[in-house]
Amino acid sequence: MRYSVRQVASFAQVTVRTLHHYDKAGLLMPSTRSGAGYRLYDEADLARLQQILFYRELGFSLDEIATILKDPQANALDQLRARQRQLAEEISRLQRLAEVAERAIEVQQTGVTLTPQERFEVFGEISFDLSYATEARLKWADSEGQRESMARAAAHSKEDWRQLMGEAAAWRVRLLDAFDAGEPGDGERAMDLAEEHRQHITRWFTTCSPDMHRRIADDFVTDPRAFALVVPPSEQRPGLAAYVAKAVHANASRTDSPEET
């Protein structure tokens, strides 16, 4: 069975020009030509083209492919191993670039206008997960509180962030002390800590009503990314997110229905 250059181009999803180039380069010369001089390819030619396209997909140059195809047994394995190392290095480089891009996007999404070095100095282990930041922005997009929070976050100076993160770190110490001591989630101490957290949000970002605080705390339980904004993974304990949520709900009920004096 013989195939014309256009048929082969269609099979392989390459251009006729590419096949002409492979022919001129001596990489894929058709087995025969028609009486009118047109290129005709047989099954062996198609198999060779498949090999060429495979190596091209891996990033080999035409000269490298020609070397491999001259003696596949002698060259293919070493060439593939070398290419595997190159690809692994390229993947690592692209991952680093992706992380840089993610951090740049994150600044826009979170409103935290600090340099990477400043972010490391201020936030330490606390990091903003981009996917969560994006989802949260969509979830609260129509919220006046979300808009105010983003605007205030963008206006915070490095010293503002340092102060608010210092307050948050001190709060976490007290939270972990209460949790480790076995204080009940709906007890006075835990509810007071929940109220501190609510007031912290109000002070630095946006007015946080008891109902809003409930919804924020519910995210702590259902989405680890949300809780990681409050307690870094290295400081978390099993059941801590649920403990905080219970304290927040108990405090919200207490705040909604203060005791008669």
TrEMBL record:
<keyword id="KW-0238">DNA-binding</keyword>
<feature type="coiled-coil region">
    <location>
        <begin position="77"/>
        <end position="104"/>
    </location>
</feature>
<protein>
    <submittedName>
        <fullName>MerR family transcriptional regulator</fullName>
    </submittedName>
</protein>
<dbReference type="InterPro" id="IPR036244">
    <property type="entry name" value="TipA-like_antibiotic-bd"/>
</dbReference>
<dbReference type="Pfam" id="PF13411">
    <property type="entry name" value="MerR_1"/>
</dbReference>
<keyword id="KW-0804">Transcription</keyword>
<keyword id="KW-0010">Activator</keyword>
<dbReference type="InterPro" id="IPR012925">
    <property type="entry name" value="TipAS_dom"/>
</dbReference>
<keyword id="KW-0805">Transcription regulation</keyword>
<dbReference type="InterPro" id="IPR009061">
    <property type="entry name" value="DNA-bd_dom_put_sf"/>
</dbReference>
<keyword id="KW-0175">Coiled coil</keyword>
<dbReference type="InterPro" id="IPR000551">
    <property type="entry name" value="MerR-type_HTH_dom"/>
</dbReference>
<dbReference type="Pfam" id="PF07739">
    <property type="entry name" value="TipAS"/>
</dbReference>
<feature type="domain" description="HTH merR-type">
    <location>
        <begin position="1"/>
        <end position="71"/>
    </location>
</feature>
<dbReference type="InterPro" id="IPR047057">
    <property type="entry name" value="MerR_fam"/>
</dbReference>
